[in-house]
Amino acid sequence: MGFLLLDGVLLAYSGLALHRVMLVLWGGACLVAAGLVVLGWRRYRRVMAELERARRDLRAEAESIRDLLHGKHLHN
């Protein structure tokens, strides 16, 4: 993400300084790509947190079933 951001800024600056429209457009594309990387990373972190919560809930449910079976003297 850092390289995309740096490339975007440098390309846009070069395009503005040299009056080259394509460099400015490519710089903008790099900046948009850096933003998409940030959004994707945030979504990934949110999904991983949900997965961890589900894993903890499943572990608690398994422990509950295990305790119930031990209470009924059904050791499986």
Architecture overview:
By secondary structure, the chain is an all-alpha fold. It has one domain. 89% of the residues lie in helices and 0% in strands. It contains two helices and no strands. It has helices spanning 2-18, 21-71. α1 (2-18) packs antiparallel against α2. The longest helix is centred in the middle third of the chain and has 51 residues, at 21-71. The radius of gyration is 26 Å and the shape is rod-shaped. The chain starts with a helix and ends in a 5-residue tail after the last helix. The relative contact order is 0.10. The mean pLDDT is 93.
List the topology elements.
Elements (H helix, E strand, L loop, with lengths): L1 H17 L2 H51 L5
Helix pairs in contact: 1-2
Descriptive tags:
single chain; 76 residues; mainly alpha; 2 helices; 89% helix; 0% strand
In percent, how helical is the residue content? over 70%
Supply the number of helical segments.
2
Radius of gyration: 26 Å
What is the number of strand segments?
0
Compute the average pLDDT: 93
Please state the structural category.
mainly alpha
The arrangement of helices and strands along the chain is: HH
Overall form: rod-shaped
Beta-strand residue percentage: under 5%
Largest sheet: none
Termini separation comes to 51 Å
Unreliable residue stretches: none
Provide the domain count. 1
Give a quick summary of the entry.
By secondary structure, the protein is an all-alpha fold. Helices cover 89% and strands 0% of the residues. The chain has one domain.
